[in-house]
């Protein structure tokens, strides 16, 4: 999945999913908070989710694995789009992501990321500084 979009939330915390993203993500998918600690939400197709969870669950049994599994599963939910291609974002997810009115929607390979615009702007500035300080550049 790829592309970047900005859409407004309505009063019922519904967010329209862009048609190009919806075509790949589907009408039902898994929504989760970012386990990396970034203040955003992630969406996966069910196949993508199974792949991510298989990589996590294939780790050797440990306390860290149990904590990771517990965190991910308790902060994940199945989302169904309505007939207008909108998802209703659960209140706990709204709070976790810091959403107010607008949401940036990014296609990032196997997942979709949802960001509050101000949090996203700060993250982009931080990433740019890190990439420049480490001289991380890619040519296509």
Detailed description of the structure:
The protein is α+β, with helices and mostly antiparallel strands and 140 residues long. It has helices at residues 19-25, 46-57, 63-74, 91-97, 117-133; strands at residues 2-8, 14-16, 28-33, 41-44, 76-80, 86-88, 102-108, 111-115. The chain has a single domain, classed as Transcriptional regulator MraZ domain (Chemotaxis protein chec), CATH 3.40.1550.20. The strands form two sheets. A six-stranded antiparallel β-sheet has the order 1-7-8-4-3-5. A two-stranded antiparallel ribbon has the order 2-6. A hairpin with a 2-residue loop joins strand 7 (102-108) and strand 8 (111-115).
Note the topology.
Elements lengths: L1 E7 L5 E3 L2 H7 L2 E6 L7 E4 L1 H12 L5 H12 L1 E5 L5 E3 L2 H7 L4 E7 L2 E5 L1 H17 L7
Antiparallel strand pairs: 1-7, 2-6, 3-4, 3-5, 4-8, 7-8
Quickly describe the structure:
This protein is an alpha+beta fold and about 140 residues long. About 40% of the residues lie in helices and about 30% in strands.
**Strand count:** 8
- Helical residue percent? 25-40%
The strand line-up of the biggest sheet is 1-7-8-4-3-5
The first-to-last residue Cα distance is 18 Å
Unreliable stretches, pLDDT < 50, 5 or more residues?
none
Which terms summarize this structure?
single chain; 140 residues; alpha+beta; Chemotaxis protein chec; two-stranded antiparallel ribbon; 8 strands
């Amino acid at each position: 999945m790829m592309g970047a979009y900005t859409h407004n939330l309505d009063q019922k915390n519904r967010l329209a999913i862009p048609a190009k993203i919806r075509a790949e993500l589907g009408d039902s998918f898994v929504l989760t908070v970012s386990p990396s600690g970034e203040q955003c939400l992630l969406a996966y197709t069910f196949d993508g989710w199974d792949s991510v969870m298989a990589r996590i669950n294939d780790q050797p049994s440990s306390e860290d694995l149990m904590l990771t599994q517990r965190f991910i599963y308790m902060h994940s939910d199945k989302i169904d789009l309505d007939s207008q291609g909108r998802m209703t974002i659960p209140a706990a997810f709204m709070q976790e992501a810091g959403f107010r009115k607008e949401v940036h929607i990014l296609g990032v390979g196997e997942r979709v990321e949802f960001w509050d615009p101000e949090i996203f702007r700060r993250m982009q500035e931080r990433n740019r500084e890190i990439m420049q300080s480490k001289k991380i550049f890619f040519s296509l």
